[in-house]
Every structure is written in C-alpha cells, then in structure tokens.
C-alpha cells in the first residue's frame, strides 16, 4: 500500500513538473527581458523610468481584468477535459475567442480615450507627463492582442500545453529587445572589431519603448490565438464552426471570472493608490519604486509557473470527480512553490544592490531600490503560497475566497498602514514597502489555511459526489 502511494506521489510530481517547468522558464525569460527593457529606458534617467512607472498600475489593472476572463474560460476547459467531454471543451474555446474580441476592443477604446488623463490622475510630474501619455497611448494600441495573450495562455495551460505560451511569449520578448534597440536610441556610431559601425535608430525614447512592447505583444497574442484554434484533432476549432454566444458557458465564465477580476482590480487599484503615494514623494522615489518592483519579480517567478500547473491539474481532477487528486496536487504545488521561492528570496536579499544597479545609473535611485528589495524579500515565500493556492482554489471553483483575501489584505492592511508609515513615521518609500510585506505575508497564511480546511470540496461538489475527502 505504501509503495503504491509512493508511486502515485512520484507520478503526480512528474506531471506537476512537466507542466510547471515550461511556465517557470517562460516567467524567468520574460523577467530577464523586462530587466533589459527597464535598463534600456533607465539610460534616459529618472524621468524616463518614471514615465513608464506611472503607467504600470493601470496596465496591471487591465491585465487583472483579462486574467479574470482567462480564468472564467480556462477553468471550464480543464473541467471539461477532466470529464472527458471534448465537444464541450471545443465549445468553451470558441466562446473564449468571442471574449477575446469583446474585451480586447473595449480595452483599446477606453485606453485611447483616457490616455491623456490617466498619468495626470496618478500624479505624474510636469516633466514626466508628456512622455507618460505617449507611452500609454502607444502601448495600448495592442489591447486586442494583449487580451488574446492573456486569455489563450490560460486556456492552453489548462489544456496541459504550457510549451506554446513559453515559445511565443519568449519570442515576443526577444522581439521587444530588438525593437527597443532601434526605436529608443538615435542613430549612433559604435566600434566593432576595431572598425566604426553606424547603428541606425529612431531616437523615440520612451515612445519607442512603448511601440516595441506593443509590436511584441501583438505577435504573441496573435500566435497564441492561432495555437488555440489548432490544439490537435481532439480540440481543433475552425472559423467555419458556430461562434454563437452560449449563455450557459458565459454565465459560468462570469461566475468564475468576476471574483478573480474583482480580486485583481482590488489589488491593482490599491497599487494605483500606492503609486500616487509614491509619486507624492519625489521623482527619484517613483523611479526607485518601479525598479524595485521590476527586480522583485525575480522572487515569485517559480510560484507563477507552478500556479499555472496547479490550476490546470486541480481543475482536471475536479472535472474527473477526484478529491484525492485535487487535494494532492494543490498541496504539492504549494510546497514546491514555497521552497523554490525561499531560495530566490535569499538571493534577492543578498544581491539587491547589484540588481538595482542594472536598471538605473542614478546612485540615489539605486540605493533606495536596493533597500526596498531587502524589505520585501522576507515576505516572498508567503506571497508564493498566495499565488499558488489562489490558483488551486480557482481550479476548485472557490473563487470568492481569494477575492476576499485580496480586498482584506490590500485595503485593510497595505492601504491603511502605508500612509501611517510614510507620513506619520517618516519612513518615506520604505513605509510603502513595509506595508506591502505585511500584506503579502497575511495573504499567504490565509490562503494556506483555506486550502487546508477543505471547504473548497463542498463548493466544487466533490463531497456531495461522495468521493474521498
């Protein structure tokens, strides 16, 4: 009996790792490219970095909404595959295409209309405002493709295809770097093997960075949408199929996706509020905040990769009616993510000054960013737990609890604590990041307790089905 359980555990680990490693590699490569992208913009000084930074929160907000849409359809796909209902899986994928078109073009219209206003609302300084508006307007021209990227990355991962998002998103990141090289900088002369070489450039600065990002995202989104049409004979769909809206699928997508979108919106609106607090300090603080946020991504990369596998495997186990597999995959994902993130958190603490120096040449910006990274490093393993177990809970249809946790921790902890530490305690930017660390630790603890309680089994119907608790 013990040998059988050990073999089953080994098998689960192999399945988990097979789905996790492409997603982890994808996240690592994306972050490395993001580092290069930030460093390229950082060459233009604090104003250039601040122009990108002030737009980060609204871009994250739109991404959070699209994550919710992706969850709404991808969880249904995983449930259908677990239940062996291929026709339903194909129908859900077709409905995902409709959702991509609606959300993508709606986002495009809203951002183009509000681009002149959003950076001003977020407190951009006069010297930053023109560049910030240009960046947001150019970047969001790719919104239909950005929607396709979010939604179909989620759908493909929940089908067990984590390699397509790896390939296409990695290629897009490389495209972004190349286009940055030619669009950000002006034409200049370099020395190659002892001979002068003229390097062409458009000299567009921050606007060039936005155009490069938009083009790269358009490539990735288009490629992932095509991949969604061509997932083998079992799940292949065609433009000749019926794309008529299916009320039952849309209703279930709303049920699953709205709490996730609300959670992301809650968190991102809180980040917007925090951006306004940071922007009120100084341009240096805003630049340091952006750099530290970018570098912090190093820590939770394994968690996001593992969470993609976790939501797919828990969702498929729920579709198959196996509470034992769902429980095991969720626990395995959480343990794996916690200990991998613990290692990266130690590295972040030790290498903070060197990481910050990669992105900006301003000594004051680098010093502040390094301090922020060390403050937040202690909370990263708990943040990993919240990322992974929130995904596992969504795969089990327990979508409201992560939303409540996001609301409680962001608005009840971070938003309340940060102004007190910044203004009353005089901690400046460090106060914002201390409040953030408290928020992340509490999220991880609450999500771990929820998964351990097993209440999600009742929500997804596994206990009513009489399966093993």
| Structural class based on helices, strands and sheet pairing | mainly alpha
Quaternary structure annotation: single chain
Shape descriptor reads globular
Q: If strands are numbered along the chain, what order do they take across the biggest sheet?
A: 1-2
Largest sheet data:
2 strands, antiparallel
Give the H and E element order: HHHHHHHHEEHHHHHHHHHHH
Low-confidence stretches: 1-7, 465-469
The residue-averaged pLDDT reads 87
Tally of helical runs:
19
Number of domains: 1
End-to-end separation: 18 Å
Helix content: over 70%
Our estimate of the beta-strand percent is: under 5%
Radius of gyration: 22 Å
Number of strands: 2
Concise structural overview:
The chain has helices at residues 2-42, 46-53, 56-82, 86-114, 118-121, 129-139, 143-158, 163-183, 206-229, 232-235, 247-279, 283-296, 301-320, 323-357, 363-377, 380-395, 400-424, 429-453, 455-459; strands at residues 186-192, 195-202. Helix content is 80%, strand content 3%.
């Amino acid at each position: 009996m013990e040998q059988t359980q050990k073999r089953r555990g080994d098998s689960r680990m192999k399945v988990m790792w097979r789905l996790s490693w492409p997603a982890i590699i994808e996240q690592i490569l994306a972050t490395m490219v993001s580092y290069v992208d930030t460093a390229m913009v950082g060459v233009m000084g604090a104003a250039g970095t601040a122009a990108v930074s002030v737009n980060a929160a609204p871009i994250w907000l739109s991404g959070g909404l699209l994550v919710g849409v992706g969850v709404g359809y991808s969880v249904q796909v995983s449930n259908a595959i677990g239940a062996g209902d291929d026709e339903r899986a194909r129908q859900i994928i077709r409905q995902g295409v409709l959702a991509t078109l609606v959300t993508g073009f709606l986002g495009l219209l809203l951002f183009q209309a509000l681009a002149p206003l959003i950076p001003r609302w977020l407190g951009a300084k006069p010297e930053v405002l023109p560049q910030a508006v240009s960046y947001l307007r150019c970047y969001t021209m790719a919104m239909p493709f950005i929607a396709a990227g979010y939604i179909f990355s989620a759908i493909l991962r929940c089908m067990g295809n984590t390699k397509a998002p790896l390939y296409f998103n990695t290629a897009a990141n490389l495209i972004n770097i190349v286009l940055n090289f030619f669009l950000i900088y002006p034409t200049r002369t370099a020395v190659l093997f002892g001979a002068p070489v003229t390097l062409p450039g458009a000299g567009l600065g921050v606007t060039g960075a936005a155009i490069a990002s938009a083009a790269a995202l358009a490539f990735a989104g288009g490629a992932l949408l095509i991949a969604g049409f061509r997932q083998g004979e079992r799940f292949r769909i065609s433009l000749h199929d019926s794309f008529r809206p299916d009320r039952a699928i849309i209703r279930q997508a709303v049920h699953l996706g709205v709490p996730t979108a609300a959670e992301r919106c809650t968190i991102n609106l809180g980040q917007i509020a925090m951006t306004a607090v940071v922007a009120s300090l100084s341009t240096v603080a805003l630049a340091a905040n952006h750099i530290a946020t970018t570098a912090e991504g190093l820590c939770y990369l394994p968690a996001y990769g593992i969470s993609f596998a976790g939501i797919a495997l828990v969702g498929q186990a729920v579709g198959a009616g196996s509470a034992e597999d769902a429980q095991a995959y969720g626990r395995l994902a959480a343990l794996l993510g916690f200990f991998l993130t613990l290692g990266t958190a130690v590295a972040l603490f030790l290498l903070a000054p060197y990481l910050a120096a990669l992105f900006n040449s301003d000594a004051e910006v680098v010093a502040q960013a390094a301090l922020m990274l060390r403050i937040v490093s202690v909370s990263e393993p708990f943040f990993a737990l919240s990322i992974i177990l929130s995904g596992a809970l969504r795969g089990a249809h327990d979508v409201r609890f992560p939303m409540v946790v996001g609301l409680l921790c962001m608005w009840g902890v971070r938003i309340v604590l940060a102004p007190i530490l910044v203004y009353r305690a005089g901690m400046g930017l460090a106060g914002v990041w201390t409040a953030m660390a408290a928020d992340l630790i509490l999220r991880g603890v609450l999500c771990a307790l929820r998964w351990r309680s097993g209440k999600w089994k009742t929500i997804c119907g596994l206990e009513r089905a009489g399966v093993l608790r």
